[in-house]
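Quick start: read one record
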Amino acid sequence: MLPDLIEGYGVIFEQSITGMALLSEQGHLLKVNQALCDLWGYRKHELIDNHSYSEDLMYLLHCIRHEWSMRNSRNEETFELTYTYPHPSLTTVHLYIKSSKICDLYPHSPCYLIQCQDVSNIVQLDTKLQYTEQKLFESDEVLKTMLNELPLAVVITKHGIIQDVNPAALEMIHASSKKAVLGLSTHAIVDASYHSEIEKRRSRDSQGRPLGIVTYLIKCMDGTQKFVNGFTIIIPYHGERAAVGIFKDITRERLEEERLMQSEKLNTAGQLAAGIAHEIRNPLTSINGFLKLMRSTDHNKQLYFDIIESELKRIELIVGELLVLSKPQSSAASRPVDVMLILHQTVTLMKVQSAFKNIEIMIKADAESIWIHGEGNQIKQVFINLLKNGIEAMGNNGCIHIYAELTTYEVHIHVQDQGAGMTAEQINSLGQPFYTTKESGTGLGYMITQNIIHNHNGSITVDSVPLIGTTFTVTLPLMQKD
């Protein structure tokens, strides 16, 4: 039987569109999902119960074990590789494989998490583009023919203005014809919350630096929105320098991330429910007591009314924060958000849990209001996760400090606890699926926190000293004035 840690997230494992498997140190497959079976061309029982694999699959598993034998000697916890796999259907599949060591599942015999994706389209596309770059850059007609045949969306721009698109791009943005998009600025297609990313990429290009892979939220011609992922190459086009962007629709993957985030929100809300119920009981007791006093005395009751009203507002605030936490949110929502308001609301909610351990939460900031573009409840989930981790890492006394520090273009929010701290190896493993430093943790909370911050064009870093404490620093771009 697999440990409860894996079994508890079986739905996530099984329904992931990424091929996933657990491999024992001896090279036996312990668990696989359907996506991996499709990639490798086997049924589940053939991979788990019957070890008479083909020579091609045996060699793939041998390569993974060989990579681990080298990594283990250097105490490395993860690796990535690309592999050309002869599929049983007589096709060739280009695989991107990432593998991570999971020691806390089998302490005496660690196993390995394998994540596998089919990148054949990207490899084929890269091959075609390399050939085009070397041989056919000056032939616009040949270039157009090639782009039209590509299954991925292609957009050619000069100075941020769309010059040409292929049929796949028209389909992706729901455009009726090329005339509807030619001459548009990329800012008209890309959501405003991602315009800063466009400017960063232009700056890197002007400095001759690699552009890398990018994720955008785009606005389709019919008003819908999609998340796309892709890369850009620079080519000569009509005698001038132009950017060719190749993109893939990843909206479905983002929706799966949102479902996972919602699951973690509800899990957190459940853990807070007992504390909040206790916190609500206190003002209810006060209200009941003052009502009895009012019945038994003829004195001025205004003071009693004021106290009752104050206690009722306190209950309303606590219940409201709990409802916000468990409310499903739209991934596409992006609006001005006051980070300081979010921090104060989060601290109000978490003080219930911190009070049980006699832990104080203090906030210090450079300004009363700090505005960013984003989704408020997702940002709140980030700080709930960080404060919750800090409280759980500390004993029954202490203080958690929150500092909000402003620069010209960013806000840096430091969440500093006085807990047990982490080693450098533990910090490097944060964010991996199922990795956790807590006995009852899942490792998914920090992974979700990273995804939320990344989706807001921000970053998160960790600084920790064992037995002293840990500081998480969240960096987010400020909302720029027009």
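The chain has a mean pLDDT of 79.
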